[in-house]
Automatic annotation (TrEMBL):
Protein name per the record: Nitrate reductase molybdenum cofactor assembly chaperone
SUPFAM superfamilies with a match to the protein in the record: TorD-like
A family per Pfam: Nitrate_red_del
Listed InterPro entries: DMSO/NO3_reduct_chaperone, NO3_reductase_chaperone_NarJ, TorD-like_sf
Record field: transmembrane: none
Organism of provenance: Streptomyces chrestomyceticus
Gene3D superfamilies linked: TorD-like
Organismal lineage: Bacteria, Bacillati, Actinomycetota, Actinomycetes, Kitasatosporales
Region (Disordered): 1-20, 224-253
Biased composition (Pro residues): 228-244
Amino acid sequence: MSPLRTRIRPAAGRAARPSREETAQRALVLRLLSLLLQYPDAELAGERTALAAAVNALPPSPAADELAAFTTWFTAQPADALESHYVEIFDLRRKSSLYLTYYLHGDTRRRGMALLTLAQTYRAAGWSADSGELPDHLPVVLEFAALAGPRAGEAPLRRHRRGLELIHHALSDVKSPYAGLLTALLSLLPPASDAELAAVAKLAAEGPPAEDVGLDPYSGAGFAPPGTFVPPAPARPTLMPPLTGPTDSEPRR
């Protein structure tokens, strides 16, 4: 892997269009985040050394620092401890669930439509996720962002900024090393407005909306009715090209 030398600049405050190399580096960070936020099964655990090497080759940036701190912890843990920790913080805690539409719509009919809209966004870009996960699963959203480019690809991340903030707060509260990955991701997005931060505080206090309906057209896709929770089956890591950064920002076809 060739070292990447150009500094990754945060999205906020860019005065000029990013260069091709900057876009490729940004995509690489997003791809690494997508992989590291997936369930650490045997396949992913077996790639920990390669992932750490890719992180260490990144140029200096706040996101790179957070990724380096996380992979130091990630590579040092026993595989079974990683799996247990992941299930505990992501599958058994609704406040840190990785399914982003839940934070905007809760268990309501609107959530089903939001999932369908997101899937249609992927198809319109010529991209099809093959991980077996719902389209709002954060690693899937991150992979799309990496492959489709900063403008259209990162739009779903910007749209779900409140949910990302809440996940970050929840992970920080339990002192999970995964909080650093959300810190890295948020550093790439425009700063949250006062209104967004107020909405996050309200969401943390009151929770997302709920109603006694299914999630058609995604009913039966791993979520329980309001008041109960059934952890979704862990998805296999998404297979990606070698971690050398894309040559352009076009989505996979």
